[in-house]
User: Fold these one by one.
Assistant:
Number 1:
Amino acid sequence: MHNQLTGLLRIDVPVIGAPMAKASEADLCAAVAKAGGLGLIGAGYMDPAKLTQVYQASVQQLEGIDEVHRAVGVGLLNYSCSQELLQAAIELKPRAIWLSFGDWDSLAMPIKKAGIIIICQVQHLEQVEPALKAGADVIVGQSSESGGHGASPASLLSFIPELMDHVEKLCQKLSIQPTVPVVAAGGITDARQMAASFALGAAGVVLGTRLNATYESVYPEAKKQALVKAGSGASSHPSTIRTTLYDELSVMAWPPAVDGNCLRNELTAQYSSQTPLQDAVKQQVKEEHDKATADNTVEKLVIWSGSSVGLITSIEHAEDIVNNLVRDTKLILQQNAQFAKPKVLGQSS
C-alpha cells in the first residue's frame, strides 16, 4: 500500500499511531514502526529528559531493521509546548513531528529549518491555511468520532471529502506542489473504516483508541479492560460522551472550544450536564475525583475513547493490529474493485 504519504514518511504502510499522551511511548511506537507504519510518541506532558529517554528506548528496539520499518516520530501540543521540549524533539531528528491544538508558527519554523517533516492535525477548515503557510507536509483531519481531545463539528464521512477539496484549493492558491496529503483520524478501528477512508480520498489513517487497547500501550491495565468492555458507541445509550468535565478538573487549560471524548461513567452521568461547573460544584467533583484517583476507582476516572470503541473486543499486540488491518483493507479494496468491473453479458454474477 504505497502512495504519496508512504513515500514522504519513508514507511511501508499508510498507518500512523496517534501520539496519545500517557499511552504512546517506546514499546507502542516501536510496534507500529515494525508493522511498517509511523509510531508517534505522545510527548505533550513530557519534559525533555523523559522524551529523550522514551525516544531512544523506542529506536533501540528497531536497530538493524530496514528504514521503512523503523519510523518513530514525536507528537507535541502547540499551546503548551516549551521551547526546551521543542528543541529536545528536534535534536532527536525523528522521522516526523506532529503538531496539534494552537498556533503553528512558533513551533513549525525551527522544525522546518531542521529538515524534519511536519504533520499538522486540524479539526476544522479554517485551520488549514495557517498550517500550510507554516510548512505542513501532511494534514491530518480529526473528526468528531476521535477519542481524547478534539474540536471538530464534523464526522469523518463529511469532514475528509471537504478537507480534501479545501487542501487542494489552498495548495493551488499558495503554489504548493504536489498537493499536501490528507490523513483521516477519528474512530478508525477496523479495515472497513480504513478502506472507507481511502474511498473518501485520504492518503492514510491514524489509529488511536484501538492502539490504546494493546499490550504495548502504557495506558493502565484497568482502563484497557474498560475499553474492551465498554460496549457500543452507536446504541441508544452510547458508551462515549464528549465533555469538558475532566479538563475543568485539570490544572492544564486547553484552548477554547476543545473538549474530550471519553467513556461514560459515574461522574459524567452526574456532572457533565452541569459544565461549565460552578465553583462549589467543581470543588465537590474534584474531591470525588481525587478520592477515585487515590483508590483507583476506574468507574469515576477519565478513559479517553473514540466512538468506535464497540468494535474493540480484546487486547492485542499493536504490530498484529496494524498488520491485520492492512491485510484486511487490501482484501476489501480488491473486492470493491471486482464489484466495480462491468458485467459481461451472459456472465453469472
Number 2:
Amino acid sequence: MGGGPAKEHLLIAAPQAIPEAIVSRLQKKFPDIDVTSIQVNSTSPKLIDLPPSTFAKVTILVTFNALPQDPSKDAPNLDWLHLFSAGSNHIQQHPLYTSSDVTITTSSGIHGPQIAEWAVMTALVQSHKYKQLYELQKEHRWGKTGAGDDYHNVLDWVGRRIGVLGYGSIGRQVGRVAKALGMEVIAYTATPKDTPEKRRDPGFIVPGTGDAEGEVPSAWYSGLDKGSLHEFLRQDIDWLLVSVPLTKETTHFLGKEEFEILSQGGKRPAFVTNIARGAIIDQPALIEALKDGTLAGAALDVTDPEPLPEDSELWDLPNAIVTPHVSGVGQAYLERAFQVLEVNLERRQKGERLINVVRRQRGY
C-alpha cells in the first residue's frame, strides 16, 4: 500500500482574489502542499463563517478572519494558522485561539514602510501647517508673505526627540526614518532590552528597512506598569508614536495623567501619533488635551470606536488628523504577507522555528 507522509493542504481564504502568480509560486516551491484559494467577501475585522466542510482537510489556513466555528470538529487536521494582519486581537475570543494548540503566526513586519510614511507625512502636515496651505491652493490664493502668518511659523524636527512606545517592526521603521530627519530616538518595550541579543528584531523585515540590530535608539525604557510608562513619558518627548499591541495591560494605557506628564503640564505640548489600536488611548481624555493645549496635536489612523461616529469632536479639531485605519494598506501588502508565509513554510520543512509566532499568554 502507498507510503509516504500525508500531503499537506493549504487553504487561502482572503477578501480579495489572490493573483494566480502567487498561488503558482507556492505550488512550485512547495510541491508537497496542495494549495487552494477562495475569496471571502469581507474586509471587516468581524469574523466570518464558512461551511464546516471548507476546513475538513486543511492543515494550514491563511486568512484574516475566516475561521472554523468549531476547530476540533470542523478542522481536525489544522495545525497552523497564518494571519494576513500584524496583530491577532480580532481573533482572541475565538476557540481556535482560546482552546486549541494550533500555531498562530502573523504578517507582522510587512507594514513598517507604508505606516512609517503615513506617520511622517501626517506629522509634517501638522508641523508645516499644510492644512492652511491646502486651503490657500483651493482658493487660488498665493497667500501672505508676512512672517507673522502661522504657516511661516514652522519648527522642523532636527534635534528634537521622538519616543517610540512599542519598538516592534513598525516602531523600528519610524525610528529609522525619524533619525534620518535628524531626530533623537528613544524606545519603550514591554520587557527590558538590556543586551544586544534582546535588542535584535527576530521577526520578518522588509529589506532595506527597520532596525534589525536595535542600534537606532539612544535610550531604552520598558515595563507595563504606570510607573515605568511615566518615567519614559518624562523624557522631553516632542513626538510620541503609539505602536504597542492592544492587550489587557495596554487598554487605556494613555489618558489624562499620561498626557499631562508627556507635555509637562502643557509647558511642552507634544504631538501624538496612534497607528496601533484606538482603545490604547482614553479618547475623551485625548480630545480634552487637544482642546486645552496640553497636546500640540494628534494623528490618528485608529479610533475608539471604529468607524469614528459622525458627531465626534475629533473630526473638527484643527490640530487633529483622522484617517480611516488605512495607514498599513498598500500595493505591496499582499505580496509581503505571502513572503512571510513562504519564509515560514521553508522553516517548517527544515524543522526550524517559525517567525512571527503569537504568544497567547502575552496576546501578541
Number 3:
Amino acid sequence: MQDLLPPPAVSSSDTRIPIQNDPSSDNEKYTSLPETTSSYSPSTRYSLAFWLILYFCFNLGLTLYNKGVLIHFPFPYTLTALHAFCGTIGGLILLKNGTFIPAKLTDAENFALVAFSVLYTINIAVSNVSLNLVTVPFHQVVRAATPIFIILLSIFLFGTRSSNHKMISLIPVIAGVGFATYGDYSYTTNGLVLTVLGTVLAAMKTIYTSILQSTPSPTSPQPRVNFVVPPRLKLHPLDLLTRMAPLAFIQCVLLAYFTGELSRVHAWSSEEMTPVKAMLLGVNGLIAFGLNIVSFTANRAAGPLSMTVAANVKQVLSVFCAVILFKLTITPTNAVGILLTIAGGMWYAAVEYQEKRGRWRK
C-alpha cells in the first residue's frame, strides 16, 4: 500500500443534517456530524480530492473484481472473511510501524464498537451475497438510491428533515431505479431483497462511521434513541479499521461454518484451487484492505453525503464496465432508468452544494 496521507481537517458541511425546530419558520439550522472548520484551504481541497478519487478507484475496482471472483469462487461469506483477515493483518502491521496511535476507550465504548462490527460485517456479507444473485448493473443502480436511505435514517435516528429541494431531487432517483429494474434484468427475488437491504445497511454504516470518527460537540444533533446510535469517539480511520477487521473475520467464519459454506470451500479447494487462483484471491483481499483504508479516511474527510456522490459516479462506470466485461444486455427502458438514477444523484449533489453555501434554506 502506498504511503498514507493524513486525513485532512476539512469542513464537513456537506454532512450537515437540517433541523427544523419550528415548522412555521422558514429558517433551518444545520449541525454537522463530524468536526468542522470554517473553510477549505487549497491544500485541503487537493487532499480531499485525492481521497475521493482514490475511494472511487478502489470501489469501482473491487466491485468488478468481486463479481469476477464470485463467478469462479461462489462463497461470499468466505470472501468477506478473507477481506477482514487482510484488514486485520494490514492494520496490525500499520499499528506496529507507528502509523497511528490507538485511542483509549472505556468498556461501554468498546461494546459500542463490537455492536458496530456486526453492522460492518453484515453490510459486507449482504453486499457480496446479493452481488452473487444479481447482475452488476442492477446491483449498482439500486445502490444509487443510497441518498434516499440516508435522508430516511436521518429522520428516524435524529428526527431531522431535509429541504424540499433535496426531496424533489430524489424523484428521478426513485423513478430511475424503477425503470432500471423493469423487465428481465437478471435478478432473483432474494437478490432484489438482499440488494435493497444492503443499500440500507450501507447508508447506516456510512452515517455511523462518520459519527464514530467525529468529535463530541454541544451542537451535534442528538439521537432520538441513544442505544441505536454509536458514541462520537474521534477514532483515527486506521484505528477503526484495525478494531473492526478481527471482529468481522470471526463473525464471517462463524457465518460460513453454520451455513455449511466452509465445507463447500474445502471441497472446492481440494479439486480446483491452483496457485494462480490463490494469488487472485490474495490480490482481491489486498484491494479490499486498501478500500477500507481509503473509505474510512475519505469518510472522515468528506462526510457521508460526499461519499454518496463519489459512489454514484462509480456506479455509472460499474454499469458500463460490467456490460462490456460480463457481456450483459441493457434494454432502452433499463438505459433510461440508469440515466435517470445518475442524473438524480447529480442533482442531489448540486442541491447539497447549494445548501452548504447557504443559498437555499427550505
